[in-house]
Design brief:
Length: 372
């Protein structure tokens, strides 16, 4: 029975939206598939990895028919990507359990799996709900997610903490060697009680992939163990990470504890760091910063006794400061910032360094020094 008939580009968009969370070699084969539910022209596409579920819809169905089937997310994506965007693709599902993708001059026949085996994550009754622009949520995640832990037995570090309080939404991420904090005022939001949720790393990455880059509204529903994002025709459900996030307010330096502030040109500093990176130890990524009056000397070396150094202008007026940092952490920070200048706040004795943007208190970054 022919269930779908559509230009390739109209079908590829929803398939691409939901396919990002699908992983290969699943222990449960059906979750490597997309659940496709068709009724007349409306078609709903769903995927899950048992922790995350994405659903979206598109008017690509055949009027007067209905059906439900699952098909490999990887194969469907690769087939559609190989076709011309304006070609019309038709999908027929036969009683033999095969789905046929037909286009002018070609046909692809792939296996399906029973749709009744596909697991569905049910939405929880929210304990809190608010709406914000998509670009605001994207900005908060972009400015903090690079500081998430990649692998850590402390699972609560492998995600971004969202804190809704009053009219502000905060995002915080840390791997204990660095911490990124960003906040935004959300018009119309008023959370009388503070609400917190640790959003998993994979969810954060996927949200950043599919969130619009405009002011489209995103409805955020927070449950006890679940968070749901709704934007456009997308519903994104994810489990939350349970655990106690570190007290970021207690460890964050202030301009009082770190009074020695130097303003550096972001692009000039980033260029110098990338040059030093060429000959920096690929395992430890350590670099040395030596401040003298009016300049910053950046040095790096490797196990082969090779060295690189770069000097950048720095309006430094205090005594000499010799301090080490993780080069990759600093490059990631400067790459995500887009302003022309960056403020570095140092304490009189080497300890955690505060990084801010000039004339802005919405973003703060803590980076721990390392022994070189």
């Amino acid at each position: 029975m022919k269930l779908i008939a559509s230009p390739v580009e109209n079908l590829f968009k929803p398939v691409k939206t939901v396919s990002g969370i699908v992983e290969r070699n699943q222990s449960l084969p059906v979750i490597s598939n997309i659940l496709i539910e068709q009724s007349d022209e409306s078609v709903t596409f769903s995927t899950t990895d048992l922790d995350i579920q994405i659903r979206t819809s598109a008017p690509v169905g055949v009027s007067g028919t209905e059906g439900t089937f699952t098909v490999s997310a990887q194969k469907a994506s690769e087939i559609l990507a190989a076709l011309r965007p304006l070609d019309v693709v038709e999908i027929d599902v036969g009683e033999d359990g095969l789905a046929a993708f037909s286009v002018p001059g070609g046909r692809f026949t792939v296996q399906t799996l029973p749709p009744e085996d596909f697991p569905i994550i049910k939405t929880q009754t929210p304990v809190s709900s608010f709406t914000l622009p998509a670009k605001t949520l994207r900005y908060l995640l972009t400015m903090t997610s690079f500081a998430m832990a990649a692998k850590d037995i402390r699972y609560y570090l492998m995600g971004v903490l969202l804190v809704a309080q009053g009219s502000k939404l905060r995002a915080v991420a840390t791997d204990t060697h660095r911490l990124a904090y960003c906040e935004a005022v959300v018009d119309g939001m008023m959370q009388d009680e503070k609400v917190e949720a640790i959003v998993p790393r994979k969810t954060v990455r996927e949200l950043m992939r599919i969130l619009p880059e405009d002011d489209s509204p995103v409805v955020v529903n927070l449950g006890d163990t679940q968070i749901c994002f709704k934007f456009g025709n997308v519903e994104f459900i994810s489990k939350l990470i349970e655990g106690k996030f570190p007290d970021y307010q207690r460890v964050m330096p202030t301009e009082d504890t770190n009074p020695q502030c130097v303003r550096l040109n972001r692009e000039e500093l980033l260029l110098a760091l990338r040059r030093v990176q060429i000959l920096t130890n690929e395992k430890f990524h350590g670099m040395r910063w030596l401040f003298k009056e009016g300049q910053l000397l950046i040095q790096g070396n490797n196990a082969e006794q090779e060295e690189a150094s770069q000097t950048v202008h720095a309006p430094w007026t205090w005594g000499e400061l010799d301090i080490g940092f993780n080069l990759l952490y600093m490059i990631e920070l400067l790459t995500n910032l887009k302003n022309s200048e960056v403020d570095f706040h140092f304490a009189p004795t080497p300890k955690s360094v505060l990084v801010t943007m000039p004339e802005s208190s919405s973003f703060r970054y803590l980076i721990m020094p390392m022994r070189i």
